Amino acid sequence: GLPPQEASVRLTIFQSTFDDLWRKYDTYSSGEALFGLPVKEYPVLVKVKKELNLLQKLYTLYNTVIDTVNGYYDILWLDIDIEKINEELTEFQNRQEGRIA
Length: 101
Hints:
By secondary structure, the protein is mostly helical. The chain has helices spanning about 5-35, 45-70, 80-100.
C-alpha cells in the first residue's frame, strides 16, 4: 500500500486526468443527442466518477485532520484549550460518520 499522503497526491493527479475524460464524454454525449444518435452509455465511467468523488471526500477529511493535529504541536502548553480541541475532534468524527452513512 501507499502512504496516505502519497495516495492523496496521486488522487489529485488522477482526478485532473479523469475530469478531462469526463468533459469529453459529456461533450460527445451532447453531440450524439443533438444529432439524434443513440447516446452511448459508459457505466464504468459513471462508477469511477462516483468512487473518485468518495475518495476525494475521504482524503480531504484526512488532510484536514492531519493539518489540524499537526497544528496542535505549535500550541504552547499554557495556551492549550482542551475544550476547543475536543470539539474539533468530535466534529471530525461526526463528519467521518456522515460520509460512511
